[in-house]
Automatic annotation (TrEMBL):
Species classification: Eukaryota, Metamonada, Diplomonadida, Hexamitidae, Hexamitinae
Domain Orn/DAP/Arg decarboxylase 2 N-terminal: 11-237
Family: Belongs to the Orn/Lys/Arg decarboxylase class-II family.
Pfam families reported in the protein's UniProt record: Orn_Arg_deC_N
Keywords: Lyase, Pyridoxal phosphate
Listed SUPFAM superfamilies: Alanine racemase C-terminal domain-like, PLP-binding barrel
Top-level taxon: Eukaryota
Protein name as catalogued: Ornithine_decarboxylase
Required cofactor(s): pyridoxal 5'-phosphate
Amino acid sequence: MKPSFVTLSLSKLKLQYELLLKTFPTAKVYYSVKCNPLPNVIKYLTEIGCSFDCASINEIKYAISFGCDAKTQIIFANPHCSQADIDEAVRVGVEMMTFDSEAQLLMMKNVAKPLLRLRPDSQSNQFVKLGLKFGTDSFEGQRLLNLAKAMKKDVVGIAFHMGYPIGPADQIMLMLKEVERLAAFNNLKLQYLDFGGGLMPSGVPIEDYAGVSKELLRIQRDNPGLEIQSEPGRYIVEDAIDFYTRVESVDKNRVFVAGSAVQSFHRDLLLSKKLTLSVVKAEELQKCVHSKKRIDIQVVEGGEDKIVIGSSGIRYDIFYEGKLGDVKAGDYIAVKNAGAYTASCLSDRLDQFSGMEPFQVVEID
């Protein structure tokens, strides 16, 4: 076993993907690549028929490299990118792109299928307020639609993202009504309606959005040929991955590990998510790797105050400060359900900086 690695449950990926399809049977799923771009994840999701929400030209080329069709399976959903990136996306075959400003719309003269991205008012209540960066209000959206008409540019759809976490179903319903209002007022033939991501496997139960699903079906019936799009990331991948890093030494209250918090948990530092760490014996972990069966990671309450320190030379490379059970050199620190916005921080550049080998992915069940 490598000093630091993740286990990836392909069956869990499939289960989460199928739960989305079951809940929103009229929607086409576009996995958010930035949430976790591990090749094992992208390859498997491609194989089971998933499409992709890409936020950069590199993500677009990455998805294409696994056999994804740029024309029908990719949406370039970053409404703030350079003219060069837009032109390159068009060159490789991408047709769907979002915009939320005049500057971006003017750059999209060669884009076949532009989608206006709206900003939900409810984002003021979200933990991650994507509206600070993406989306426009309906008033400005109307002006942009008028500008598109003047440019003789057909806007083919409307997108919105509720933020993270996605929040109650009634907030989504309000946005769906606003999409319909804008489309009707502008005599806009909707080809695409993209209602973003924000779903959490441990958040509002997905069953609570059954009413949203019915409303999407009704909108689809009223707009023949309309494609409903969902852009999950966290919901699919978060609970499919566990992270492990070996304890190299213990000095009183300081626990030194092989992995790097800078690489693995920068997301958690940014979002102030409290990590829950567990201690797993190497022998138990070895059985998991050989059998390809997932360990049921048990969180032990209590213990002594510890500081878990990563191996890079960066001063803030600290995993955790808090209670931790008995831990010895050779044990592994485990973090359960660490699949969202973690592996994307494990860049080759940081690997080189800290002198560590690239991390290993072990596929299980």
